[in-house]
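## tool: complex_structure
## caller: assistant
## args:
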Amino acid sequence: MSFDLSETLDLLDRTPAMLDALLRGTGASWHACNEGPDTWSAFDVVGHLIHAEETDWVPRARIILEEGEARPFEPFDRFAQLDRFKGWTLGQLLDRFAELRQASLETVRGWSLTGAQLDILGRHPAFGPVTLRQLLATWAVHDLNHLAQIARVMAKRYGDEVGPWRAYLSVLSR
Amino acid sequence: MSFDLSETLDLLDRTPAMLDALLRGTGASWHACNEGPDTWSAFDVVGHLIHAEETDWVPRARIILEEGEARPFEPFDRFAQLDRFKGWTLGQLLDRFAELRQASLETVRGWSLTGAQLDILGRHPAFGPVTLRQLLATWAVHDLNHLAQIARVMAKRYGDEVGPWRAYLSVLSR
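## result:
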């Protein structure tokens, strides 16, 4: 199904409340477990979403709208959150993410983007030309990608505890 | 990390609000899309969760507590929801699931299960002996499994729209 700006922003608007419902107030056994060395917990993923909100989505959209292909995006640091949020609580991360996301969506809605603007090209440091529409679709899919990751990481806490049912639970084998 | 009854029930308690935040009020473009023939949309998954709530988790737990291994569980119909919920709205499904989940958790909390009770064996029609603890762990992982599925199915709506970013979004290749 083709890109719909309003439905994309609607989905992006849902993520803070969805993460709250799933994570806020959980014990560390749920939100601090990961999939082994160099993998992320739910806590790490929320930190990553904060960092992306600050340095990726709206900043890149602004570069596209203001400078088009003339200025490549800054490369995104996928690991910044691992140091930056040491000592934070999960509640603090969820609060910060919700504030940033709300501000991001206010900015994008304020632009009242036209179809022609969605076609404007920017320059990705690895891929080359990308449209503003692709960036916004990616923002939504990136949320869903990390929601699926959080569900998988949490599920693996009970990878052994489910016993023979493991065979029916594909999330445990990914 | 080992099984914790209270944290398991806490997670199960979160699922209705989490699905509400993600799905209630979305356009059909988000909740009716699937991954192709014989695959499920978010709508279908919520129907499946309702059917499991009615016929799987608490009914099987009750069989274990009352009859142990003497009576095998009824086989679970994984496709019942596809006919049963035709004509329902997503809002009706979410309401029904929330009511059933609340009632399920009241029942289980009312049992005040001991560690010895969690060790009681029942009989799965395919696997043979399983403990009540394994059933309850599976209930939680089953929620997370289907949450990951919903996120994946919704993400694929924009499988083409993300353009070259597809390479970074593993949820699109599963």
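## assistant note: The mean pLDDT of chain A is 96. Helices of chain A lie at 5-23, 28-31, 42-55, 57-67, 80-84, 90-111, 115-118, 132-156. Handing back to user.
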